[in-house]
Amino acid sequence: MNNNPFENAQRQIDSAAKYSDCDQEIIKVLKEPERVVEVSIPLEMDNGKIRIFKGFRVQHNNYRGPYKGGLRYHPDVNLDEVKALATWMTFKCATVDIPYGGAKGGIAVNPKELSEHELKHLTHGWVNKLFELIGPDTDIPAPDVYTNAQTMSWIMDEYSRISRKHSPAVVTGKPLENEGSLGRDTATAQGAAYVLFEYLKAKSLNPQDITVAIQGFGNAGANMADILFHHKIKILAVADSKATIYNKEGLDPHDLDEYKRKHVSLLGYKKGKEISSQELFKLNVNIIIPAALENVITKDNAKDIKAKCVLEVANGPSTPEADTILTKNGVDVIPDILANAGGVTVSYFEWVQNRSRFYWTQEEIEQKLAQKMSSAFYDIYNFSVNKNITMRQAAYALAINRIGKAVKNRGILN
Ligand code: GLU
Measuring CA to CA, how many Å separate 259 from each of 14, 236, 272, 275? Predict the structure, then answer.
């Protein structure tokens, strides 16, 4: 079994290349990151001891605009994962047609074990080590797994301090008080919900008849649950890293949220029964929503999926082997590079606002996000129907066309 996420990303590109108009020679350029950087960050812990953390930034491609992508704090962060995530960012930005390339960063750390003070200095250390590589016109980080608006504010502060320039546009996903954008915190889920509603419309399905299971209850998963509940979609199961909760009558995300805030995880939640994390994928629901980490739908559990749709809110949740099985079984996969592109789309809006120093209303953000997501959805959906290919292949083929043209116009082959 091959679950190397970077190789999976390369296979996804290969599987779509023949449906694009791109010269096969240029495809080679799109499969490799342009720059891969690993740094060691020494941190003086609160107890006076020094620990060394590994930090990464991978810049995949910047032919369509500055490198763009999140910063992940997780104990399992490694180079192949960051390379995959950076690759997906390039294709994601092209999918929703925003003028960015792709990048990703990470630190191999369990942030739950660090104090606020330690986390702040670790974040400053990452900026310090990578200062020359990031910047408002070069590479713009953002939140990802276990980083948040506070982390972004620390990045802006350290970058501004070193450069002696107030530099809000060096990072997106900042707090509102620090020139963040309205709607950024819920943007990933909101964008995925817009895509889902267009999909249901295209399939003539009524949201009120739909049931879902959500794997992951962080920023994206919890906000997704909230939005779907509001639209009367029944949430039969949710999982976080510690527990999976099922209730055939439906779960109330507000109540789950409150419980998680109090108890840190969903473990012990009583208004539903606890099932194993693998049982979630076997449930009789209409849609499975992976909203946490990569490689959760594999060749081992794909065959058990009864849902007719997988909405990939996480990055890289399905392996290529799983994709083949799902396609054979008639399951529609709404691919990550479309489904979760709402986050980076509102990041782009934040960056535009920072640079123009003029701030938009909530309504303006929502309307612009909805427009971006639904037009990307229809381009991909129609292309996949016309060519009889999966939505992932369609999304990659259309993105390859855009990136490939940018590469060619800039003269890589000259
Ligand atoms: N980490 C998010 C993603 O994977 C957001 C990236 C961004 O806003 O730059 O899409």
Answer: 44, 17, 13, 18
User: Please, are residues 209 and 219 in contact by the beta-carbon 8 Å criterion?
Assistant: no
CB 70 near ligand 1, within 6 Å: yes
CA torsion 329-331-335-336 (nearest 10°) is: -100
Buried b (16+ CB within 10 A) or exposed e, 271-287: ebeebeeeebbbbebbb
Q: Distance (Å, rounded) from C-alpha 179 to C-alpha 259?
A: 31
Domain boundaries, given as residue ranges, for the chain? 38-178, 187-339
Q: For residue 220, report the distance from its CA to the centre of ligand 1, in Å.
A: 11
69 lines ligand 1 (CB under 6 A): yes
Amino acid letter, residue 292: A
Provide the pLDDT for residue 414.
Answer: 42
CA of 317 to the centre of ligand 1 (A): 15
Of 58, 82, 138, 347, which is best to mutate to test ligand 1, by the most ligand atoms within 8 angstroms of its C-beta? 347
Tell me: the pLDDT tens digits for 329-386? 999 999 999 999 999 999 999 999 999 999 999 999 999 999 999 999 999 999 999 9
- pTM to 2 decimals? 0.97
**Residue 197 token pair:** 């509603």
Mutate to test the pocket of ligand 1, among 195, 344, 353, 372 (most ligand atoms within 8 A of CB): 344
CB 341 within 8 A of CB 370: no
- CATH class of residue range 38-178: alpha beta
Burial-class residue 372 by CB neighbours within 10 Å (0-12, 13-18, 19+).
buried
Could you confirm whether 104 is annotated as catalytic? yes
pLDDT, residue 412, reads: 74
pLDDT per residue over 214-256, tens digit each?
A: 999 999 999 999 999 999 999 999 999 999 999 999 999 999 9
Which residues make beta-bridge pairs with 234? 211
187-339 CATH pick, 2.60.120.260, 3.40.50.150, 3.40.50.2000, 3.40.50.720: 3.40.50.720
Q: Confirm if 274 and 126 have CB atoms less than 8 A apart.
A: no
Q: Which of 68, 83, 92, 104 is catalytic?
A: 104
Q: Is the CB of 68 under 6 A from ligand 1?
A: yes
